[in-house]
Amino acid sequence: MSTTGTTGTTDASVAANKAAGAVMTTVDVDRSDAEYRAWLNEAVRKVQADANRSADTHLLRFPLPEAWGIDLYLKDESTHPTGSLKHRLARSLFLYALCNGWIRPGRPVIEASSGSTAVSEAYFAKLIGVPFVAVMPRTTSPEKCRLIEFHGGTCHFVDDPMKMYEESADLAARTGGHYMDQFTYAERATDWRGNNNIAESMYQQLRLERYPEPAWIVATAGTGGTSATIARYVHYMQHDTRICVPDPENSCFFDGWTHGDPHASSDCGSRIEGIGRPRMEPSFVPGAIDRMMRVPDAASVAACRALERAIGRKAGGSTGTGLWSALKIISEMVAQGRTGSVVTLLCDPGDRYLDKYYSDEWLAAQGLDIAPYEKTIETLLETGDWREPTA
Which GO terms describe its cellular component (predicted)? Predict the structure, then answer.
């Protein structure tokens, strides 16, 4: 038996010598490799340089009646180089994996993803020169698939979203690659105490606003890493801000949080790409957040379209889910006579979903009627009253 990169005896022979009562010699395991370390240093430099080249993302205002004394902001993560909130996550995951020695030259990085994370990870894989494979549901939007391939990645489809995890791990084992596993590592790869994470950025940008400490931050959950980062930062900095996580249909997060059930699950995938999961993901941290809302998919789409009418920007369904919840919170503040600010996220651009959330044909095929939800938003913005949609 031999072990590459070791000197002296192997673990097996050490055990045998111990059993025989033999005199032991020093075992010195040296896995350093000058060529690998040079590659690693250059890979880390390239990923860090990407962050250094990027300006901060904008904080956009959503117009509300001045008399309310409430400001609503959207943190526009669609302006990242790969066009979504997941660019931050992918950068953190790559640095984490590189510094742990998990990514190796020439070996593929493999990820289970419903789209946007895979787009961003394909970008960073190409940046450091390793292959990338995205394991995704077959229903993932064609535009996201095109973007993954544009950045040099390969799409590997599964019919059952619950099979993504197992298939990703199997692919990594077969190829000698690394399964990135965003759903496990998202909450730990990002420095939640600062280092220009998304929460620190929000508070810096609000410094000169009339309500610099928001009453609420609304963050949707896919991995759960963003909501965990924001909530931890808020607690660490002792802010009085509350954290709300909206959850779409066909996701188990709301039920798991409500009932304290870490084994909650759903038997079908979310129609709102990027958020909602069929299982309680390891990166979702229920104890860190203050409130959850179950948001109908039709409400998410109605809010997407309301955003376009209000500020002229198309956004994805996850943005609509967050915006719907933010508007409901604002209606409660209006009813209570409270003033303050609310922040939510513009997660990715709507041009990735023109054939879905902006297609009346797709809505009809899905049996989604957004008219009652559009009416709720219109009534709120006109009168300040929140009237629950009726069929």
Answer: cytoplasm
**What does the H/E/C string look like for 306-323?**
HHHHHHCCCECHHHHHHH
Q: DSSP label at 70?
A: E
Q: Which of 129-138, 158-167, 225-234, 316-325 has the lowest mean pLDDT?
A: 158-167
Q: What is the pLDDT of residues 244-291, one digit of tens each?
A: 999 999 999 999 999 999 999 998 889 999 899 999 999 999 999 999
DSSP labels, 227-278: HHHHHHHHHHTT---EEEEEEETT-SHHHHHHHT-TT-B-SS--SSTTS--S
What is the helix (H) or strand (E) element at residue 362, kind and residue range? helix 360-366
Dist CA 320 CA 365 (whole Å) = 20
Domains of the chain: 46-81+198-383 (3.40.50.1100), 87-186 (3.40.50.1100)
Please give the residue that has the higher pLDDT: either 9 or 149: 149
Amino acid at 247: D
Give phi and psi for 264, each to the nearest 5: -60, 145
Q: How far is residue 49's CA from residue 31's CA, in Å, rounded to a whole number?
A: 27
Reduced to 3 states (helix: H, G, I; strand: E, B; else coil), residue 32 is coil
**What global pTM score does this model have?**
0.87
* Backbone dihedral angles phi then psi of residue 221, each to the nearest 5 degrees: -130, 130
Band of residue 14 on the pLDDT scale cut at 50, 70, 90: very low
Which residue in the block uniquely carries the two structure tokens 């031999």? Answer: 2
Instruction: Please tell me what DSSP assigns to residue 324.
Output: H
Report the alpha-carbon distance of residue 324 to residue 389 in Å, rounded: 12
Name the packing angle between helices 225-236 and 182-189 (round to 10°): 20
Cα 389 → chain centroid: 29
What pLDDT, in 10s, does the model give residues 25-82?
A: 566 656 678 999 999 999 999 999 999 888 789 999 999 999 999 999 999 999 999 9
What is the rounded CA–CA span in Å between residue 365 and residue 384?
A: 33
Grade residue 7 by pLDDT with cuts at 50, 70 and 90.
very low
| Residue 122 · residue 91 · CB < 8 Å | no
200's CB contacts (< 8 A; 6+ apart) are 194, 233
